[in-house]
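1st attempt posting a full record on here, be nice pls
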Amino acid sequence: MNSIKIAFHKLRDRRSRPMSRDKADTLLLLFSCALVLLPYSFYLPSWITATCIIMILWRGWITFRGNRMPSRWLLLPIALLAMGGIYLDFRTYLGQEAGVATLVLLLTFKLLEMRASRDLFVVTFLAFFLLMTHFFVSQSIGTALMTIASIVLLLTAQMSFQYTNAVPSLGKRLRLGAMIVALAIPLTLVLFLLFPRIQGPLWAMPGNQESARSGLSSTMSPGNISQLALSKEVAFRVRFNDNKLPPHNALYWRALVMGLYDGRTWQRDATQGRRTGESVTYRPDGPGFTYQITQEPNRQPWLFALERPASVPQLNGNRVRMTPDIQLMAARPITERIRYEVTSHPASALQADAPADSLRDWLSLPTGYHPRTIALAHRIVDDHATDAARIDAVLGMFRRQAFQYTLQPPLLEGDTVDNFLFTTRAGFCEHYASAFVVLMRAMQIPARVVTGYQGGEINPVDGYMTVRQSDAHAWAEVWLKDRGWVRVDPTAAVAPERIDRSTADTTGSAPVLGGLVNFNIGPNSWLHKMRFQWEAINNSWNQWVLNYTPDQQKDLLGALGFGTINWQKLLLLMMICGGVVMAMVASILLMHRPRVDPIDALYVTFCKRLARQGFARLNHEGPRAYGSRLQQTDALSAHTRHIAQQFLSCYEEYRYARNQTSERLVTRSTLHALLKQIR
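the predicted structure (as tokens):
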């Protein structure tokens, strides 16, 4: 029992003792590196994240216990296994993803090799470099704030190792690190505003995945997927002029027109207009809506607009054209965030007088497919005399019969359209649009599939409408005599709430932990309001920071009176402004620097001169103790010892005696004269 008490008291005494400086500084560095590596856990393979956690905890345990660092012969096989894992995952050691993964592992392994000061600098600089690679994946405001916090913490950890005497508290060191970052902000603003802008983003878009994720694709294959995942990623944002908005059920953002069909997959025909001689023949009619779109990069050539855009938007260095079937196509894929203005007249009639030859491609169906669907179309033709009546008959069938709109339809095999219409009768917009167009063509009514987005959500904070990938939609267009191409949305016949509200609104509350916790995100909930606030901030960041394009830079310089300016003049202006800013920052630092007593400066110089001769003053020594030690050594000449004794006695009298101002002036001149005699 006594031995247990003794062990307990020893443990309590060990915990009550303050942590040594080396341990505290090392743990601060480990925490800084963990903060740097935190964002990588969201997109690097899970085994890399687990390896980093184990390595950092291992290094922390060594620091706490005061154990020896692991030998290189132990770390070497672990490092080789990690490099082998990188190759198995990425099939290369080159490139963005494999390179970043390698650097992440190198940083954690280097933490277990810190045996000298240079290792500390290697770890710190590697962490700073990894901070830059965060922007390869995301340039959001959250990433920027996380990067700034990591920089402050890394600077604090780096400075903590540099102190030789008394170390300030952690709070003071953090304030100093934050002050260093704040001093860099003015020069950063100058570089941001005046450095020549470079076209193109720093990140790569994620590739297509096997199963379904909501969003827009260049092809449409209903029935190939059994579950649709709703993506909350932003496709584009819209700002309507004068807050003049169309009703929600008229918000059809047109992108692609698909007419080629092989029995399963729909795709656009790039030669359609040139082959049939079609042209954009419509006059803007009815109410018009002018709006500005900020489109996210999607590495695709299409642009978005409300139906019947009146003109082609202009993009700098990327020509945009309008195809006869009203597709806005850019010459090059959209690899950076763009902003353009469009005016649309949704009520305008399109190609109402189109010749029959130009419509024949919109009637084609592959042979040998959909026999039951074609038989149904023939029965509808026999029962109804006009095309309009036949269209209403199909929509009435969708409304009255047991068709279901669902984001988790059963997987279709064999003839997808026949199985959908006569067996499963469950699907989302792509199923209904595809089946409807097949029925129309079987009735000899020209029809085509249109894909884009439907709906959008107005943010009451900044007035922008946000259209997400979850709003991706497919509908149909049919050609009717004297009316031209008319939009028909069969999904609206089955699930009108999908058109009256966005898809995100129909998903209900957000489940957490597999549904154990459910947050209400209704329009009046505090979580919903907070989301609007954050999205408004993020949108402002996108509009004013990430969307600071070369055109905006030219407009800014033009507004400041510089007119047309080339890159040479821009660099010269940047250097001038940068020099002025650096001079202002330097003047502020000089004004607030601590004033050094000239007598103390002479004393410091005296100590440095003797230190170069091998007689450095110890930290605990005052002038008298230092002088006594100098007098006891024979390595200094008698003359030097005598001069040193006079200097230290004079300095001691100045520092600790109550002298008058005139006497102090004499003392300063005396010390200066004595210092000259010590070489």
